[in-house]
């Protein structure tokens, strides 16, 4: 079969008619078949060699294809080297090297590709580096990287529209966040790694990303205190154009972070739809979120030291999904109703809060995931009032023995999932489960005691769930019969 394929490719490249487009992806052909002596390849503009796992070294003869505009080498995972004279491809506009896991070095001559508009080196070798003179690629519009280091000069690429990741360096030979000030055309997604200090969004030195949709701040390893001070109006309104399109903000991997700013800037609050805070185990208080009026999805994970509640989220009418996990045992994440107060006092406080905020409790919340951490023994009682919930996932509540009776109050619940609750043994009563008239899916994963009691017909809990249309133990559906 391989011999027939080789002959077929040889016929193609030996054809007398000029070839401008050649797609040899996933063919397993021999790279030696592309020779510069074949006259019909001199006019080639598009060459796709992706997913050819036999290519280890791209030969120098490739640089003779002077009219080449697009070269795709993605998923050539055996590729170890490119021609040193890659810079001679003066018309090359698009170079795709993603998922070339063995590729550790890019030739310095790549910085001579004056027409290059797209460079993709995502998921290449762990130690791959960009050429030192990257700043010469003034026509570059899209740079996709996952690098441990990035050379300085990125700020000279003023036509750049896509920069998937910026790794901030430790010295002047590497990239700094200040260089982003010139990149006014950036849009889409940007991930900034290894920042030493949390950015002050009100500072004039903070870059203005007017077309950016997603921003991730990852790996502020030494940051302990993150503060910004909002200047009084009208000075503070100058920043209103900094992030007019930002929809998602992620803050991750800040192991020493203790304090955060008290509130989010108003120019982020206006457009933010998704907020993610992960792996900040020392942080005790989060910024006030009551002004994030457009927020639809919130994820807080790995913040074991968190002491502030999520009570302020009650007024967010757009909030549809919350994912929260590994909170401290003392934290009451939904303290809107206190069981220690009298009913009259509760009603008065609720009326005052609703009058102040002009809204009701979580009126749009549809999805909730709670990762209880290893020490928690029960679920927050306030969950019983979230009657708009359609999806509820409970995971890693190690001391939880029984799901509460009030679970039957969640009249809109369609999907219930419990995961990795070793001691979980009992469901609510049969009457409570039957009140969940919308429930159509129950998934039980890594809950050995509950799974045993929910065995079809023989389990003591089976009568409580036999009416549910779809019951899964892990990934395996239970045959409910007729």
TrEMBL record:
Residues 339-360 are annotated as: Disordered. Pfam families: LRR_14. It comes from the Eukaryota. Residues 84-277 form the Disease resistance R13L4/SHOC-2-like LRR domain. SUPFAM superfamilies: L domain-like. InterPro entries: LRR_dom_sf (IPR032675), LRR_R13L4/SHOC2-like (IPR055414). Keywords: Repeat. Residues 343-358 have a biased composition (Acidic residues). This is Leucine-rich repeat. It comes from Macleaya cordata.
